[in-house]
Specification:
Elements lengths: L13 H21 L2 E2 L5 E3 H8 L4 H5 L2 E4 L5 E4 L4 H10 L9 E10 L11 E10 L4 H17 L6 E6 L6 H13 L7 H9 L10 H8 L10 H16 L5 E2 L11 E8 L8 E7 L3 H4 L7 E7 H10 L10 E7 L2 H16 L4 E3 L6 H10 L2 E7 L1 H5 L2 E6 L5 E5 H7 L6
Parallel strand pairs: 1-5, 7-8, 12-13, 12-14
Antiparallel strand pairs: 2-4, 3-4, 5-6, 6-11, 7-9, 9-10, 10-11, 14-15, 15-16
Helix pairs in contact: 1-5, 2-4, 5-9
The chain binds one RNA strand of 76 nucleotides through helix 3, strand 6, strand 10, strand 11 and helix 11.
Amino acid sequence: MLTNAPRGTKDILPSEINAWRYVEDVLRKVCAEFGFKEIRTPIFEHTELFQRGIGDTTDVVEKEMYTFLDRGERSITLRPENTASVVRAFVEHKLYADGQIAKLFYIGSMFRYDRPQAGRYREFHQFGIEALGSDSPSVDAESILLAITVLQRLGLKDLQLKINTVGCPNCRPQYRKLLQDFFGTKSQELCEDCQSRLTRNPMRILDCKNPHCHEIAMNAPFLTDCLCDDCRSHFEEVKKLLDAVGVHYEVDHSLVRGLDYYTKTAFEVQYPPLGAQSAVAGGGRYDGLVEEIGGPATSGIGFAMGLERVLLASEKQNLLPQNTEMTDAFVVCTNKEIFQSAFNIVMKLRDRGLKVEFDYTLGSMKSQMKKANKVQAKYVLIFGDDEFARGSVILKNMANSEQKEITFENIFSELQGVEK
RNA sequence: GUGGCUGUGGUGAAGUGGUUAACACGGCGGAUUGUGGCUCCGUUACGCGUGGGUUCGACUCCCACCAGCCACCCCA
């Protein structure tokens, strides 16, 4: 118990950290290119923020949140996603005040009480963006392309981009009604979940995985047939822009996002080899959310990307960098007295930016050399009795085994530039 | 939350109801004098996820729990 991380959590070990940093670097680079700025919001928020923001009939809010009372009797929830928080911060700090669109991105831990599986954790990491303050379809296209660019930049292949529109408060109610009428006549054929969805959220029936429900849903009316002019032209414009840059996508009418705040554009990027956890990124427009949370009516769009899944996919495709950290110099000493002088030189070399290590146990020279080899030292500085007496050390190049005796003063000039 | 599979040292793993739990990698030590990478030798699990139970005796059988994985579900 004490020696096990809680279920669904995971340590990221030094041997894995390079992969994470590599991915994060790509994200930050692409965000900079697209003009998105980083924002960091609290790990926990008032529970109500998520209930209002995400929707309290959603699965996430109903059964997946880490909610608890703090010592001041406030109901607190570990963020299950970051959009609500970013919107909250946007409103709280009046980031709309400059009249410009706010383009924000985040990277961080999210928490959902799910049953763990590969690619699905209770604490997981998301990268995401939110663009607040514009209802232009070009922002939709840009957001989608940002996700695609990141994944392409990582070198991922075989990704599928699916897009859809889920309507807006003007047209969705009619569609909802239409769906309820359609499924209502066949309600006893639907699975249990869908029967309850019928009244609560009939659009979710469209992406039910139950084969029979799926079959029935095939003949359901399309939202695209009920869209208001605004939603229709918006969607057309988004598609045109994606076409303009030659991105492949598939319009998937069954693509319905699981969070209530979505309007108009919805999209998802999948990497099928990940199995049940193939959704690598997903998002959409949420034009009503800012107002819902108490801010001025403001359009918004964003997406989130699951970093564990991106890492998993990258690993499958062998795209992750190897750990190639080398030690610039390893200091070997023949005895404790000499080590005191050597230690001083170790510190001076480090001050000059070199990666320097030595053997804490001061074992035999052979074992010290082995350690030097293990940390992939480029050079070894051997402080031997005889040389030390002469005020010099041996500098050995580990790559070609060449070695020479140099004076203490020359150590710094000899090792100049090896860290590069 | 539901169903299924799995759980042996740092790692990958073999193993049988009954003396000292293979093997490989890794680690540590060594192979004449102060020097690594190759080779060779030695050494390295008081314990077989945890806790109970069955048994003369269990790592091997049973139960519970915990954890991982797969599917469902959900979503990133």
